[in-house]
């Protein structure tokens, strides 16, 4: 199984501004002073060995869109945030407009950051493509259709040329989708949200975003750990710090990096991927959260090591 991240931010897009780019450049130039970087190869090697991820790159600014590839011919996506546009352009570049494709999309819920990319999803405009959109959410079809409607968008849904189907799912019931077995789970979030367990190619990925977990709710914690059980990767809403999630932002419908570690330890999961980054957090802050999470996992580990990464736009994980 291969997992590709096309959008990793929460709530709204957070593009890297010009001042932030300049700050990265200035810091890199100071570090490189006297290093004799007179060829691209030397500069590449310097970046690889001397610069941290936030110094040489960015976690990105697109909202939630994750591709899961278990080896089948069709595409499988989780959510249609602004990252869906980047995915669609890459898919079009791979196949061209004349080669029809089938796209399967699992929608967690209908808050705008998770569906806002659909009006710019290029395959929807191309005849011959088939797009099947699935969700346990009761209003997902109306929410997606209504985005393509005046006065908010100039192209009506009825004008889209692809074959577009909406497929309701029931939580806790397994379905065969794009060569994978997909099971949904209800989550604690305003307006409802659903996580998905995706099993294919002998591997298991959990996609769980926009979900709040309360440690005192032991029944929900146990159900969630059972849903995560033995997963190869858990893509987890870690928008807030633990302190935020239990104080000023309690009941805001999101979780923390620490809760991700706790649930993955309970479930015996192998890898935790921090996801749905807070839009006000810059690259240095997200890197700091990753460092804190690695340290917390180390001091709380009782059995197997939990691998931890922070998702960024363009990250590819072989699971």
How would you describe what is shown here?
The protein is an alpha/beta fold. It has a single domain, classed as Ribonuclease Z/Hydroxyacylglutathione hydrolase-like (Metallo-beta-lactamase, Chain A, 4-Layer Sandwich). It contains 9 helices and 14 strands. Strand 12, helix 9 and strand 13 form a beta-alpha-beta unit. Helix 6 crosses helix 8 and helix 8 runs parallel beside helix 9.
Which properties best describe this structure?
319 residues, alpha/beta, Metallo-beta-lactamase, Chain A, 9 helices
Mean pLDDT, rounded to whole units?
94
Helix content: 25-40%
The name of the CATH architecture is 4-Layer Sandwich
The share of residues in extended strands comes to: 15-25%
CATH superfamily: Ribonuclease Z/Hydroxyacylglutathione hydrolase-like
Q: CATH topology, which one?
A: Metallo-beta-lactamase, Chain A
Number of DSSP helical runs: 9
Spatially, the strands of the biggest sheet line up as: 6-5-4-3-2-1-14
> How far do the termini sit from each other?
5 Å
Shape: globular
How many distinct domains?
Answer: 1
Structural class: alpha/beta
Main sheet characteristics: 7 strands, mixed
Query: What's the level 1 CATH class?
Result: Alpha Beta
Number of strands: 14
Order of SSEs: EHHHEEHEEHEEEEEHEHHEHEE
Radius of gyration: 20 Å
Poorly predicted residue ranges? none
Secondary structure topology:
Elements: E1 2-7, H1 18-32, H2 40-50, H3 53-56, E2 65-69, E3 75-78, H4 83-95, E4 102-106, E5 130-135, H5 140-147, E6 163-168, E7 174-177, E8 180-187, E9 193-200, E10 203-208, H6 218-228, E11 233-237, H7 242-245, H8 257-267, E12 271-275, H9 283-300, E13 307-310, E14 316-318
Parallel strand pairs: 3-4, 4-5, 5-6, 10-11, 11-12, 12-13
Antiparallel strand pairs: 1-2, 1-14, 2-3, 7-8, 8-9, 9-10
């Amino acid at each position: 199984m291969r997992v590709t991240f096309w959008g990793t931010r929460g709530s709204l897009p957070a593009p890297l501004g010009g001042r932030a780019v300049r700050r990265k450049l200035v810091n890199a130039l100071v570090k490189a002073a006297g290093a004799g970087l007179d060829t691209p190869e030397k500069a590449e090697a310097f970046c690889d060995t001397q610069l941290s991820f936030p110094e040489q790159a960015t976690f990105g600014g697109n909202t939630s869109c994750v591709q899961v590839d278990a080896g089948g011919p069709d595409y499988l996506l989780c959510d249609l945030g602004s990252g869906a546009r980047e995915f669609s352009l890459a898919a079009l570049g791979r196949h061209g407009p004349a080669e029809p494709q089938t796209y399967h999309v699992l929608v967690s819920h209908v808050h705008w950051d998770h569906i806002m990319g659909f009006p710019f999803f290029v395959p929807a405009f191309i005849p011959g493509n088939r797009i099947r959109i699935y969700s346990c959410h009761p209003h997902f079809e109306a929410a997606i259709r209504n985005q393509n409607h005046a006065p908010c968008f100039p192209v009506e849904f009825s004008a889209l040329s692809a074959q577009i189907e909406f497929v309701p799912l029931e939580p806790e019931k397994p379905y065969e989708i794009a060569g994978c077995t997909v099971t949904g789970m209800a989550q604690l979030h305003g307006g409802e949200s659903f996580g998905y367990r995706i099993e294919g190619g002998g591997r298991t990925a959990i996609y769980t975003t926009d979900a709040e977990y309360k440690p005192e709710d032991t029944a929900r914690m146990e159900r969630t750990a059972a849903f995560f059980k033995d997963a190869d990767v858990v893509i987890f809403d870690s928008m807030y710090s633990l302190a935020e999630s239990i104080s000023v932002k309690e009941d805001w419908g999101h979780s923390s990096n620490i809760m991700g570690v706790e649930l993955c330890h309970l479930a015996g999961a192998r890898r935790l991927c921090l996801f749905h980054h807070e839009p006000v957090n810059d690259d240095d802050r997200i890197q700091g959260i990753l460092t804190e999470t690695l340290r917390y996992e180390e001091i709380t580990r009782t059995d197997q090591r939990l691998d931890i990464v922070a998702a960024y736009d363009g990250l590819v994980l072989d699971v």
